[in-house]
Design brief:
The protein is an alpha+beta fold and 243 residues long. It has 8 helices and 6 strands, in the order ααααααβααβββββ.
């Protein structure tokens, strides 16, 4: 019995890993069916269809096995093989011994400096920042790519911020003669008062530390003035009907 114990432990370990791994892959595959360029139910049709395909596949497999019970032996063999592969040890003992004998160059310096801390992800643009950017780049509507360039953040962060702020994202939005995903002018949030200590976010932020920046578009003028006491902050004033 002691000779079979390692094999039994490996099968048990592999069986415990298969379920969560399959679940994670299925969830990730279903989530990839979501359409960011659509809104409402249309954006979720892909995820619903993929979830339905998984459920249909499980149902059909159960029907086939019930009609032909002998297939259970095939499924059992496939399951044992998968559990055996998934249950292999994470690290080989020989590799660990070699790692102890041959330390990696610079490992001592890295240990003295401490673990590297991953940089914190920047917060999503606020609804006020989105409103200013949408009005600033509109011609007559605004593409998400143009808003992302104006704010200096990735396009997926802009889409996430728009969804969080409740601003509809539409497909086929026209801006400067081009059609792409964006926000229609009718869905722009109204411009409100901007706090004095608002942090200006945009590709020209570094140049505006030393002078006043003025950007006009579609009847909206955004004036940014650097703060002499806090160079990393810029005072923003939004004027409607100017420019």
């Amino acid at each position: 019995m002691s000779r079979l114990r390692p094999a039994a432990d490996r099968l048990a370990r592999g069986a415990a890993r298969i379920g969560p791994a399959l679940a994670r892959r299925a969830v990730a595959w279903v989530r990839r069916g979501h359409r960011d360029d659509l809104t409402g139910l249309a954006a979720h049709l892909g995820t619903i269809a993929r979830a339905a395909l998984i459920a249909l596949g499980i149902y059909l497999l159960a029907r086939v096995v019930r009609a032909t019970p002998a297939l259970m032996w095939v499924l059992a063999g496939v399951g044992l093989a998968a559990a055996w592969r998934a249950g292999r040890p994470a690290a080989v003992k020989g590799d660990e011994e070699e790692g102890e004998k041959a330390p990696v160059e610079g490992a001592e310096e890295a240990a003295e400096e401490g673990p590297e801390v991953a940089p914190a992800e920047a917060p999503l643009p606020t609804r006020e920042e989105l409103a200013v950017a949408l009005h600033a780049v509109a011609d007559p509507h605004a593409h998400t790519a143009a808003v992302a360039t104006h704010l200096g953040v990735p396009a997926e962060r802009v889409r996430a911020a728009l969804r969080e702020a409740g601003i509809p994202i539409s497909g086929g939005v026209r801006m400067r003669g081009a059609v792409s995903t964006g926000v229609k002018a009718a869905h722009f949030p109204p411009l409100g008062p901007v706090p004095e200590n608002a942090l200006l976010r945009g590709p020209d932020q570094q140049q505006q530390h030393n002078n006043v920046g003025v950007h006009s578009s579609s009847g909206v003028t955004v004036i940014s003035t650097p703060d002499p006491e806090q160079p990393h902050r810029t005072h923003v004033t939004v004027l409607k009907g100017a420019g």
